[in-house]
Specification:
Length: about 375
């Protein structure tokens, strides 16, 4: 951190905790686990034991009680080693945030008790036919006696294979469009819940993504969070709040790509000198630093607005767009600096290049972010 965004002592010690953990437990194995395509269970368990899956859950419910700014600092720090590890916990923590914001006291107690048992969760909004157009959700929740019966399929769900509980957005009244969407707590062990095989992706292979199908899944009425009309609003709030966190993750990864590029440019010799002596290489390095410093300003501007409860829909989208595109550009230039070696699997930079493609799509594509920004400008 530099300039405007000084960390408090508490934030510094949490960031150090993440840094030490990531450097000791994750860094030495990243490429090996990347080949396997998943984190070992034991390594996930370590993060749960440290409470990372409850970062934003209030302390009175057993969580770490962190605000968005501090959460983003931890996510950024984690991404300086590997970006999907802390993000996996953030998905669960964000789910906890929805329940804390929109649930009643019993639901808060119940949901936090699941997380305290070490459960991970997943947020199920996207469907095969409803991505950017999230109001087009076709999954239904039909009230029958003392239960809702859920039917439908959810696509690209992060943590799906690891989660024990899902937050599911489903339509209780398709004739009302987005106003007929509601959010439900659905435990994975309920009959009719099926998680597909992991979806194989070329980027962020260490992040678990799968499809979840709900076939006549019965859940009690008290598993509806908030009201039958507020599911879409809940989802939009979560997405706004999580965009700066996705940006923070990209910001951490930008720094890793920059550091790898700086180091390699000092070591690689061409025409009798390290390539960092060449001005065309220096230009790339300087541009990386410009993007990183600008991205940092945007990320923490958005998180601070969120923490102050101020409107920040456009700012969250701006931070998400700028930082995820900066990550992609920096990773691309870093590969260029590595030359042919940048394409080889045994070099971490090739993983970063592949990973950098993902964040421009998740949490609302960057086209949708621009729609949001323009809408705010034209209001
Ligand atoms: C790795 C990964 C993890 C994910 N995790 C989750 C998760 O945990 N939970 C969850 O619910 N979802 C998750 N998603 C889904 C993600 O949010 C969607 O993929 C994303 O919103 C885009 O939807 P789509 O893939 O259906 O693309 P589409 O909506 O079909 O879009 C296709 C293209 O059309 C463009 N487009 C669409 N509408 C417009 C418009 N109005 N103006 C301009 N351009 C437009 C898009 O920008 C895109 O370029 C994840 C996705 C990925 C890849």
């Amino acid at each position: 951190m530099s300039g405007l965004f000084n960390q408090t002592e508490d934030q510094q010690s949490l960031v150090e905790l993440v840094r030490d953990f990531m450097n000791k437990e994750i860094k030495p194995h990243v490429l090996e686990w990347e080949k396997e395509g998943h984190y070992p269970r034991e390594v996930i368990r370590q993060g749960i034991e440290m409470g990372f899956h409850m970062m934003q859950v209030p302390e009175e419910y057993g969580g770490m009680g962190l605000d968005t700014t501090t959460t983003s600092m931890l996510i950024e720090e984690g991404a300086k080693v590997e970006s999907t590890y802390m993000s996996m916990f953030n998905v669960t923590s964000m789910g906890g945030k929805i329940v804390m914001a929109a649930g009643n006291e019993e639901q808060k107690q119940y949901y936090s008790s699941l997380l305290q048992k070490g459960y991970l969760s997943a947020f199920c909004l996207t469907e095969p036919g409803a991505g950017s157009d999230s109001a087009a959700v076709r999954t239904t929740a039909v009230r029958k006696g003392d239960a809702y019966v859920i039917n439908g399929a959810k696509m690209f769900i992060t943590n799906a294979s690891l989660a024990s509980v899902f937050l599911v957005v489903a339509s209780v009244d398709p004739s009302k469009g987005s106003r007929g969407l509601a959010t439900f707590i659905v435990e994975k062990d309920r009959p009719g819940v099926q998680v597909s095989k992991k979806i194989e992706k070329f980027g962020m292979r260490l992040s678990n993504t799968a499809e979840v199908v709900f076939e006549d899944v019965k859940i009690p009425l008290d598993h509806l969070i908030g009201t039958e009309e507020t599911g879409f609003a809940n989802a939009m709030k979560v997405l706004t709040a999580s965009r700066p966190i996705v940006a923070a993750s990209s910001l951490g990864a930008c720094q890793l790509a920059r550091d790898l590029a700086v180091q390699y440019s000092k070591e690689r010799v061409a025409f009798g000198k390290p390539i960092c002596a060449k001005q065309m290489i220096q230009e790339k390095l300087a541009n990386m630093e410009i993007l990183i410093q600008a991205a940092r300003g945007l990320v923490y501007n958005a998180t601070m607005l969120l923490d102050q409860g101020k409107p920040c829909t456009a700012e969250a989208s701006i931070a998400k767009c700028f930082t995820t595109e900066a990550y992609w550009k920096i990773a691309d230039d870093a590969v260029q600096i590595f030359g042919g070696y940048g394409l080889c699997d045994e070099y971490l930079i090739s993983k970063l290049y592949r990973d950098s493609r993902v964040n421009r799509i998740v949490e609302g594509t960057n086209e949708i972010q621009r729609v949001i920004i323009a809408k705010a400008m034209l209001r």
